[in-house]
Structures are given as C-alpha cells and as structure tokens.
C-alpha cells in the first residue's frame, strides 16, 4: 500500500511539474461556487477529469485548470466517483460545470459548501488480496 501511494505521489509531482506557473496561477484563481451562486453567469462547458487522481484536491485542481483554459471564472462541482488507478488502487474522478461571471456576479471567494465532500476507499475491496 505504501509503495502504491508513493508511486501516486511521484506521478502527481511529475504531472504538476508539466504545468507552467501561469497555468497554476490561473487554475488557483477559479472560484468554487454553488449552482445558485452562478445565476446570471454564462455557462461555458462541462469539465471532467481525464482519469482518476489519488486525492480529491488533485482532482479538484485538474478541474480548475480545465476551467481556466476555457476562460472560466467559476466552477460548480457536480459529481465524484471512484475509478481504478491500478488493478487494486482506487482514485477519485470529479466533474463539474465551468462558468464565466461578469464583475459583480458570482462569489469572490471559494464557497466551501460548493466543494464535493467525498470519502473513497484507497483499495478495491473486491481486489484486496492483502487483507483477505
């Protein structure tokens, strides 16, 4: 289990290193909001993780990065589910909706209530041969 987590952490570090500082800054500016908070904003597109991530914050950052690339200012998280990273190791996938809000519309800081709370198992119980 420790080996799998170490590999996932290294992959995350390497993948984050492929992003420019400007891209990281743009992703960090995207504001997480509730659906009611983006009324009057323009829907741009649905955004989804391209694959599972080892942590919810990593999956969330990926969504924000995608939203930033589309020119969005806000993100409404919609769904979270587990998917296999490896044969036994599970990760999380998030999907959401990207919006562009004009000045004066939408929240100006992240709404913690808009962040999906999702606890997921690290290993698939059906494939967990270590604890059998």
From TrEMBL:
It comes from the Bacteria. The keyword Signal applies. Residues 1-21 form the signal peptide. Keywords: Signal. This is Lipoprotein. The lineage of its organism: Bacteria, Pseudomonadati, Pseudomonadota, Gammaproteobacteria, Aeromonadales.
């Amino acid at each position: 289990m420790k080996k799998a987590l170490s590999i996932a952490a290294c992959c995350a570090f390497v993948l984050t290193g492929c992003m420019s500082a400007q891209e990281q800054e743009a992703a960090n500016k995207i504001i997480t909001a509730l659906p009611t908070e983006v009324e009057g904003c323009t829907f741009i597109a649905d955004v989804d993780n391209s694959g599972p991530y080892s942590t919810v914050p990593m999956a969330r950052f990926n969504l924000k990065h995608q939203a930033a690339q589309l020119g969005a200012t806000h993100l409404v998280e919609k769904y979270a589910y587990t998917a296999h990273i490896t044969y036994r190791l599970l990760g999380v996938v998030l999907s959401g909706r990207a919006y562009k809000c004009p000045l004066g519309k939408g929240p100006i800081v992240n709404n913690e209530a808009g962040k999906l709370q999702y606890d997921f198992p690290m290993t698939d119980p059906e494939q967990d041969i270590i604890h059998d």
